[in-house]
Every structure is written in structure tokens, then in C-alpha cells.
Amino acid sequence: MNIVVAVKHIPSIADDLPVKGANVDFDSVDFVLNWFDVQSIEQAALIKEAVGATVTVIGVDLIGELDGSLHLALAMGADKAVKITADDPAADSHQQAKWLSEAIKGLAPDLIFAGVQAANDIDGQIGPILAAYLEMPYIGGVSAVDVNGGTATISKEFAGGVGAKYEAALPLVVGVQASSKPPRYAPVSKVRQVAQTAVIEKVAPTGEASAGIVVKKMSPPAMTGHADMIEGSSKEVAAKIVELLKSKGLA
Amino acid sequence: MSNDIFVITEHMDGKFSDVSFEMVGKAKELASAWGGQAVAIVVGSGVDAGAFASHATIHVDDAALSQFNPEAYGKVVEALVREKSPRLVMFGWTAAGMDLAAWLSARTGAPCATAVRDISADGTMSCQAYSGKLIADVAPEGDMAIAACLAGAFPAEAGQGSMAAATLASPVDLSGLKVKFVEAIKPAAGDVDITAQAKLVSIGRGIGGKENVELAEELAEKLGAALSCSRPVVDAGWLPRTRQVGKSGLKVKPKLYLMLGISGAPEHLEGMKDAELIIAVNTDKKAPIFNVAHYGATNDLFEVAEAMLELL
Fold it and tell me: CB distance B71–A137 less than 8 Å?
């Protein structure tokens, strides 16, 4: 069985996101592996352990710094790593999905995982676009995948703890919300070890697609309201919160 | 191409979601400006489709559509869109809409905007990006566009009403589907029903690790509150899914919502923004939660929690 995990390298939302023109100032931000893709890697590793599989992780190298994320994936259990050398930090989801789909076609995948979403999915998520380009079915919001022969049993989440179970014939694209078990910890020493020996296959981007949207403006949200900020040391802040709660009969 | 707006409605157990009514209301407003019709699209079987104040409702009724199936629903919606060529197709930015909106975009070539919080008469869409840290105003190119709309973006009342539906058989063959619905998964029985709690202490990724959850538990206990959390805490296995607040979790409306280490991604805000008193402690002074919280502090959450424990 071949499992392909498509990953997305995105600006870190843990930091400030300065804007330049009508997009994030990509020179001023750190890029990180999309968290939902970490869940995808874990889900693939779990299936590999359960029924055996070759797991290939593939991503678009937007700024020449994807190797670290691919090394992490290999340390978590992926067998092969491929990077599409795009060098275009502004590539939208449609373009990235097109490049990924062209590269994935040659991998004869049975299952393709992608994170259910990423913070920079302004024109849609990679998974469903990839499914459309590859003419495969797609199920997103997935929190468990079991494979038995040529069939996958999928748990999909809706809101409020409600979900549904589906069976799907392979091949299939899955948008992973969460893996069946929390992602395993890959020790830094193991990632470093992998980095010294791993061979990352380079693929030139092929195929063109466009989101078809023009970003006219990007900016922080206008303050529709703002919290009254409690200033002071942590002890002072705690005292003010407790005082506030007591005044409202909540403590 | 027409100037119509298609609203792909959502339902479960025969009940339509709020976002369906919200989108129909907005579609009517846009239809008025564009000279088209707001058309509610109901895909499903065994559902009363006459719940909308739309200009028209199309109900595609087929046994294969009795439960949400992304493959079947996608085929039906694509066929309708290709046949009728609306100017805009609206989905909810939901578990179902997220399966279909971008997929339809890639299938049809129509541009798609996600996490849409407003649409102007000129077609410009305002979208939440980067977990709400930025807002992107985007203009779709071409004759047709797709919008995946945030729940709560528009008022629901304008979309509620009654409009007799035109019921159609499926426009596509739904035999031989690769995806089959097996069964519904009901919510797990919770140890605590967080929706029934007057006070919640809620933790997010900032709590750092499972070993730190105990501190928040102690604080909750002292306050007579229950412990809840945002999605990353559940995904990391630090708390069970029954404690999750947000879009894919539970909606809560407590008297107190004390947040520790939660930045306020739109998915979380969807579940708690109606709490009566929201206090957020988060070291990132630009965290979106401070736009929603009534009180905020940018101190270390562990120091604040420990100091509160001493005072309570």
C-alpha cells in the first residue's frame, strides 16, 4: 500500500504577521509545518504500523526551508520524502495542489492525506482541490482511518461531537482533522540523525493552476471591541481578576 | 450565466443549521443588488425543504442523499451549478461545506474564498485568514464565484420563512459511489456536560503539556468551574473531546469563561463568543481573543493561575 502525505509549509501564526502590499511579508516571518499535516503524518504512520505501507511525504518548498519539516516526517515514520522546488512563497492552494497532483500521479497512491485545513487557505484547502485534480473522492474533517484491503473506514467529525462513519474504496483523498492517536514525539536527536542521512527527492514544479482571486487588501482585523487590559505583575493581575470575579459573585 | 445566488444548505436529522438561514438572508440582499434570485439548494432525502425565505428552493431528493456523503453531494451540486450557472455559490465554512467548496472550485474553475465573513455588492469578499490574525479582501475573477461562509457572519432571521420547494430527482447517476455512509456517530457521553456549566476555565495550546493541565484543574475546582479547552488540547490527548469548545466541539454560553493560553482562532470563537464574561490570559498581545474578551492580560498564565489559587 502506498500512502502519500501532502504537507503545507505556512507562515507561523505564533508570530507577528507583517503585511507587505496585499500579502504577508514573507521575508519577515518564519515558515512552519501546518499542524494538521503533523496529524496526517501520524495517521499515515499508524496505518503503516497496522497493515504495512510505504509512506511518502511530499510538500511544496516555498522558501527553500522545507527540509526540516520533511526530516520531522521521516523521524515520525515516513519512508520517503519529496519536495517540489517552487521557490514561490505566495503560491496559492490551487497552484500548490496542481504541482502536488502532478508529482503524486507517479507515486501510485492508495491513500492521500492532507491536513483538513491550513491557516493560509484563503482560496480553499489543499485536500479537496487535490482530490478534484486527481479525480478521486474526498472526505475531510477526518479523525480516524482504518484500512482493510482496498477499503478504508473513515470517521468524520461534524460539530458538537456528532460524526459519521464512512467506507470508501481506494484510492481516496482524506483531509485529516486529527489522527486516531495524538502525534508521536520525534526527539530532536532522531530528527538530527535523519537529517544527516535522509535523501530528499527534488521535483520541479509542473502544471499551472490559479485560485482566480485577487487579494485586494490584507490587514489586521479592525478592532470591533477590545478587552480592558489588566496591567501589572502576574500577582497583581491575579488579584485584579479575583477581585473582579468576587464583585460579580463568580468567586 | 445568471445573477442568481445558490445557497447550499445543510441539515442533520431533519433540522437545518443556522448557517443555512444566515446565508439565505445574505443571498437575498445580494440578489436584490444584482437583479437575481436567492436560491436555496436542499440536497437530501426525508427533509422538509420549505423552511427558507428564499426566492426559490430546489430540493434534490434521492435515497442516496439521506445522509451527508461528500462524493454524492458534490456530484449533485456540481451538476446543478453547471446547468444553472449562478453568479455565486455559497457554502457554510463547516465540516460539510469544507468538503465541497474548494473541490467545486477545482472542478469548475470558479474562484473560491474561504472563511468569508462578508460579501459586498461589488462581489468583494472579506475573509478571515491566518486564524483570524489577518483579514483578506479578495475579488474573484470570472463569471462565477464560490464563498465558504463563516457561521454567524450574517443574521439568520432574514433567511427564515417558507418557500415551497421544487423537488427534483438527482441530476446525476448516484449508483456506484465509492464513498458509502455507514453510520452516525453520536456524541460521547461526557464526564461533565460543559454546555450546562455556569463557569468554565478553558485551556489552549499555551498550557504547554499534559503535566500542566492539573494546575488549570485546580483553579477550576477552586472557582467551582469545569475545565474545558480548545481543539489543540484535545488533539494532543491532554483532555477528552467532551471538553472541547468550538466549531468542531461544543457551543457554550457560561456566565464566566476564563481562558488560559488560547489565542482565539475563529473556530474557537464560534463556540464561546456569547459567554457573559470572558477573561483571557495570553502572552501574545496581538492575539485575536483580545478583540472578543471583556478583560485581558498578557502575563504568564502559569504565574497568574498559581497566584489566583493562593488568593481563592
Answer: yes
